[in-house]
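note to self: dont lose this again. the chain is below, predicted strucutre after it. 242 aa total, dont forget to put it in the shared folder this time
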Amino acid sequence: MRAVPLDDPRAFPPAPPADLDDAEAIAANDWEAFRQVAQMRDHWSRPGWYPGRHAYYWMLTFPDEPELLAMAHRCQSAIAPLGLDLIPDDGLHITLTRIAEAGTPRARLDALAEHAAEQVPTAFELSVGPLAGSPGAVRFSVAPWRPLVELHAVLAHANLRTGLDVGTPTARFRPHLGIAYSNRVRPAAQVIEVVADQRSTARVHTRVVSAELVELRREGSVYTWDVLHRVPLRRPLAVGQG
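---
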């Protein structure tokens, strides 16, 4: 469970930031990788993600974060002329890792949630922003990475302990929070130019207090989900305890 992100051409950015705790280093690494993208791809052409597909995932969701929603709205309004598929308010999330395909017995998912609850790390603060992107999306950088990576490793271990797929290896995990998906192949230069104009937006801070085990669906050009288990993260010890 001590795995860390490693250079991997299958991930984006291919190289992780030099410092997993430094928000500026993380944002600079994300932005430099996006600036090198020559062509946007169609996010929805990913193999296996046909309309109507169901699968189980670990995610972080943000159902009641007005400041985050306001920042997303401002940036989405700016990039709307690009014709990307904007992510709705109830679709904002950070994907942690896949668990299994539809049809997995509910009892096994319940057991997974129990195993994860035994191992989860403490709750942590997260900053969201500035805006960056990938070949398939426009997305916010998030920082710090270290607690997210540690949470990913714990959940991947719980998956394996329950006899399920590890999903994305922790070494390939690249945390981010998307606000729009690319829906066609096109040159990336115009997207990068518009995103660059939004990078001065102040970061928003939130607190991650749980991880959600969800049944994820693709409905047209939108992801929706039902939360099956919300696994609380441990509370930090108060001063003087421990």
